[in-house]
Write a structure and sequence with these properties.
With 376 residues, the protein is of the alpha+beta class. The protein contains nine helices and 20 strands.
């Protein structure tokens, strides 16, 4: 069963290259490779990040995103390639000489220290002037809204408070780069969503470049300037969130980010910038460039589907309504094809109310919103 929902949408532009090449990149990861026991974890990977950018590494467990983060931090060795930050090569430098801050999934506050001393720890390790430590600590505790807990023991804090202490501790030493490895995964949903926005605003205010590891697509879409979608040790697509979602470059990106309905088929007609694809569900037009006979699938994001017969510049289907589930402001419609396969969509409740069980439901979407990708 395919699950869809109808929400607002727009259109973005495709990224110029999977590696996000930028000649003036602040962080440049070039041709990096890493293997464990003969198994490649990262394969000739490139990544270029501009100064002040917030970039998320998004992908499933085992795709290499945490390995890449640790390579940049200097916590593990590199097999090949190089890492540069602000034009300075970091590849062989130990972690403590890279000017890189790291916030891990487990916040790791020093439980025997107060909140103040936790944040001051890195400053003292850097031998900062004693008269600058207190105002610096107070500034960053204020930014993470923990000034009122400055003297509290770290072990007495909640998970969310510990997370904010970890962020303040990492930022207080003014790192050239901040790396975050799923720091919100242990938080409840409400606190997690609040921290996502707070951290993004804080980093923008400070102008700090950040790399954020997550497997949560919603988190990446909310927080990022750009997203690098990773799969099997390589970057499938590197682009802004709107482009990643609306114009996925590969079938993997389409499947991993968001939901969609897709129909496999073959290109039966092709002209400049548009193809016609024959599928078991009918013929669909799509903006794409494939040769006639190519095996592809067409797909559509759920928010682009509307309850209406198709117009001249639309594609469409007509299905049978088999179930309607009321969920307050919205309803879930269970629709069936003639062979019994089902498709589920969310619609505003007011649109679902007039529909009769067993009756036909027309669906339409613009040809310009139809995706066509190669079968892999």
């Amino acid at each position: 069963m395919t699950s869809l929902s109808l929400v607002e949408n727009g259109r973005g532009a495709r990224a110029p290259s999977p590696a996000g090449h930028m000649p003036d990149a602040y962080l440049a990861v070039e041709r990096v490779t890493k293997s464990y026991r003969g198994v490649d974890v990262l394969s000739n990977l490139d990544l270029a990040v501009g100064q002040g950018e917030f970039v998320s590494l998004l992908g499933p467990s085992g795709c290499g995103k945490t390995t890449l983060l640790r390579l940049i931090a200097g916590l593990i060795g590199i097999d090949g390639g190089q890492v540069l930050l602000g034009g300075r090569e970091l590849t062989r430098l130990p972690a403590h000489r890279r000017n890189v801050g790291v916030v891990f999934q487990n916040y790791a506050p020093f439980p025997h220290l107060s909140v103040f001393d936790n944040v001051a720890f890195g400053l003292r390790a850097q031998r900062a002037a004693s008269e600058t430590i207190r105002p610096t600590v107070e500034r960053f505790l204020s930014l993470v809204q923990l000034s009122h807990l400055v003297d509290r023991s770290a072990k007495a804090l909640s998970g969310g408070q510990q997370q904010r202490v970890a962020v303040a501790r990492a930022l207080a030493v003014k790192p050239g780069l901040l790396l975050l490895d799923e720091p919100f995964s242990a938080l409840d949903r409400k606190l997690r969503e609040s921290m996502q926005i707070d951290l993004r605003m804080l980093l923008r205010e400070l102008g700090i470049t950040a790399i954020f590891v997550t497997h949560d697509q919603d988190e990446a879409l909310v927080m990022s300037d750009r997203i690098a979608v990773m799969n099997a040790g390589r970057i499938e697509q590197f682009a802004d969130p709107a482009t990643i979602y609306r114009r996925p470059a590969t079938p993997f990106v389409l499947d991993f980010v968001g939901s969609s309905t897709r129909f496999p088929g073959k290109v039966v007609d092709a002209k400049e910038g548009e193809v016609v694809v024959e599928t078991a569900r009918g013929r669909f037009r799509a903006p794409a460039n494939f040769i006639t006979g190519a095996s592809v699938f067409v797909a559509v994001r759920p928010e682009n589907i509307r309850l209406a017969p198709p117009g001249e510049d639309d594609s469409g289907l007509e299905l049978t309504l088999v179930e309607r589930i009321f969920l307050g402001p919205r309803s879930v419609l269970q629709l069936a094809f003639t062979d019994g396969e089902r498709l589920s969509i969310d619609v505003p409740a007011r649109l679902a109310e007039p529909l009769a069980i067993g009756g036909p439901v027309p669906l339409a979407w613009a040809v310009s919103d139809t995706l066509a990708l190669p079968v892999q």
